Amino acid sequence: MKKIHPIEALIEQGEHQQLDFKFEVSDSKKIARTLSAFANTDGGRLLIGVKDNGNISGVRSEEEYYMIEAASKMYTRPEVPFEATRWEVNGKTVLEVYIAPSPDKPHTAPDKDDKFKAYIRVADENILANEVLVLAWQKKHKPDGTLLKISKPVERLFAYLDEHSHINISQFCRIGRINYYTAKNIISDLLAINALQYIVIDKHILYQRVPA
């Protein structure tokens, strides 16, 4: 029985939250968004020289590696480190780029208007992180930690989540009887101390309790 190549085994999985295929890399800024999204979420691998349908086209030069390096060094803040491995698969070269989940998030990359934004990886797409997630990540780095008061809005939030699977910010404003600024701060505090987690449904970022 023919032994399957590790890269072919990866390709068989199809694209998902931790795996992305790229026929080529022609735009370092665009690929920087993928580096940001992987680093801000669960990490992942880019296979360069692989078409969307999983066919191996191969990379033609060292240029692909230099484009990734430029994306990392010039277009991610803070810089997203990566590991690159060249594989020969049936006479063609595939560049595997591994990005680890980062403890230093948020990592940002330029959007279409060259404004640096944070991205997250959802299924096989990169989507913008909202300001609540960015605030929560920043709070995790605070040397004195995050102090949370169990206020009436927090009590109402947990009572709501006892009955519902998730909540968005506007729902929390309504049931907590608070403004957006206060809601954003409470949710980001709860995310920072791992009392809540985020989920994404139809590209909308929602919040739920962390399963016990």
TrEMBL record:
UniProt organism field: Parabacteroides acidifaciens
UniProt keyword Nucleotide-binding present: yes
Domain Schlafen AlbA-2: 15-128
InterPro entries noted in UniProt: Schlafen_AlbA_2_dom, Schlafen_AlbA_2_dom_sf
Entry GO MF terms: ATP binding
Keyword terms of this UniProt record: ATP-binding, Nucleotide-binding
PANTHER family according to UniProt: GLPR-RELATED TRANSCRIPTIONAL REPRESSOR (PTHR30595), SCHLAFEN ALBA-2 DOMAIN-CONTAINING PROTEIN (PTHR30595:SF6)
UniProt cross-references to Gene3D superfamilies, sorted A to Z: Schlafen, AAA domain
The protein's name: ATP-binding protein
